[in-house]
Design brief:
about 120 residues; 5-stranded mixed β-sheet; mainly beta; single chain; about 10% helix; 2 helices; 9 strands; 4-stranded antiparallel β-sheet
């Protein structure tokens, strides 16, 4: 009799790369997470891949640390080969990765308070 194999994949999956075009050292972050200071946590990130089976999964890039400044929202699977100047001539300094849809009102509340919704990890 075969043993049952249970696999529990955690989404979304955010892959961060040190070089453009998805090259160089890679970091993988899984689950609903907010990265408050991208440089301090992972160094100089130049490209990323964001994957979730949910079309409503949300990736938010902020122009300043701690989810402040201008932001850009992506929904569903997203591959960005070059992060330079992606947010109005600014590189991302903080990121939110969510497996569910975050509304613009929720994103603005995070930007205003710096607090992530329940169920999110902070890095």
């Amino acid at each position: 009799m075969k043993k049952a194999f249970i696999s529990q994949a955690i989404f979304p999956r955010l892959r961060l790369f040190r070089e453009e075009d998805f090259r160089g050292r890679r970091f993988v972050v899984r689950g609903n997470v907010g990265i408050r200071n991208l440089d301090r946590s992972f160094g100089d990130i130049e490209s990323l891949r964001f994957f979730s089976p949910s079309a409503n999964a949300t990736l938010v890039l902020f122009s300043r640390r701690n989810f402040r400044g201008r932001f850009r929202v992506f929904r569903g699977v997203t591959n960005i080969a070059d992060l330079d100047d992606i947010i109005g001539d600014n590189d991302p300094e903080s990121i939110i990765s969510s497996n569910s849809r975050l509304s613009l009102d929720q994103i603005r509340a995070i930007r205003r308070t710096g607090n992530l919704p329940s169920g999110f990890r902070s890095i």
